[in-house]
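Technical note accompanying the year-one report. For the benefit of new consortium partners, we illustrate the data format agreed upon in the data management plan: each record pairs a sequence with a structure-token string. No post-processing was applied to the example shown here.
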Amino acid sequence: MRLQLDYKLGVAERLAHEEFRSGSSLQRPAYFRQAIPSLVLCGLGLVASYKGQSVTLLAIFLLAAGVLTVDAWKKGLRWKSNLSAAVDKEPANSVQLVIDDRGIQETVEQQVVSFAPWSAVRSYVQLERIWAFNLAGGYTAVVSASAISEAGPAAEADLKTELVARSIPKLVNGRALPPALS
């Protein structure tokens, strides 16, 4: 089997890999969820101010709730624009990946060549945006899922057959499936 893929590896794929590696979501932080305890206290203060008929305290707690809400909203907007700027600023790398009987060879920007024999491939994971091949020494080969799907269903089937034949487990939810079930 020989599979050659030419693709771009950009920020979106790097973020998908980092999300998988860290085990946490890189989606928008829950700024409103983080503000809920303070908003609940403001709500209790509003109720107490209303019951005590204190207009000044009512205004203070109402102002505090408004400030917390606007702050959470602004942080959410800044996060989105900062992420967009990072994606736009970081150029995608052109990658040529060759998977054959010897192993996995990755050439980045036609200059940096790395090779992993099959004995160094510990496991793989198939996500929506990427395939990640976990290698010995904690290294990972990240492949754009679109590059594999663009190579055709036969290429993907050949790759999966090769991984099963070499007893390389597929990770699902952080656990290895036996190669026969992959």
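Partners are asked to follow this layout when depositing records. The first strand starts at residue 3 and ends at 9.
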